[in-house]
Amino acid sequence: ETGVTQSPTHLIKTRGQQVTLRCSSQSGHNTVSWYQQALGQGPQFIFQYYREEENGRGNFPPRFSGLQFPNYSSELNVNALELDDSALYLCASSFGSLGEQYFGPGTRLTVT
Amino acid sequence: AQSVTQLDSQVPVFEEAPVELRCNYSSSVSVYLFWYVQYPNQGLQLLLKYLSGSTLVKGINGFEAEFNKSQTSFHLRKPSVHISDTAEYFCAVGETSGSRLTFGEGTQLTVNP
Predict the structure, then answer these.
(1) Do residues A39 and A110 touch, judged by C-beta distance below 8 A?
(2) How many angstroms separate the Cα of A1 from the Cα of each of A4, A5, A26, A67, B101?
(3) Burial zone of A26 (CB within 10 Å; 0-12 exposed, 13-18 middle, 19+ buried)
(4) How far is CA B5 from each of CA B8, B43, B105, rounded to the nearest angstrom?
(5) Is A98–B49 a contact, with Cβ atoms under 8 angstroms apart?
(6) Beta A10-13 vs A107-111: how paired, if at all?
(7) Of A43, A95, A99, which has the smallest distance from its Cβ to B103's Cβ?
(8) Residue A69's pLDDT is what?
(9) Is B106 on the interface with A (CB under 8 A)?
(10) Above 90 in pLDDT, residue A36?
(11) Low-confidence ranges of chain B (pLDDT < 50)
């Protein structure tokens, strides 16, 4: 059984650029949640996708957007990057809203 | 709205000593409670969870936690820690297991020889 994977592991972007982060859910899971973890803080919920539809959103601006594909993998897109977007981005997959969430290793984004 | 407060940002202990990491929560609805561990440069791993039933929950790696509804607390304990327990620990709440989780700020546990 393959766990949750994320790509890339690290990346560096310049302020104002756009970035796409990717997440492959664990086999059998149909729900993906994205979290932002700033340095020294706990993860904060960005949004969740269930069966290709957004199913809840945290307090993040519209420049944070996402997609879920028919195979339940997901992308997180961030436009007009700001320095404060520098963080570890975690995705978690589950089977619906009642299933336990399994986290991937994260993508560390640095914005300069 | 839900919130989580982890009362200690850093907890240093000696190897084989007992440890307690404290967590208080606030919610207007019934919630599920979780403890996660994060090792350096890694994602989150679930240690244990409270959904219902017995208020004493046992998890992996010898950790346990006690749910106290009247004090809205969910403290994590281990009777004897190892060097390998050095990590960041996060308490979290959610309306269900798979719904959005609200995390605390984390407690860095450092186990010294």
Answers:
(1) no
(2) 10, 12, 8, 24, 25
(3) buried
(4) 9, 21, 7
(5) no
(6) parallel
(7) A43
(8) 94
(9) yes
(10) yes
(11) none
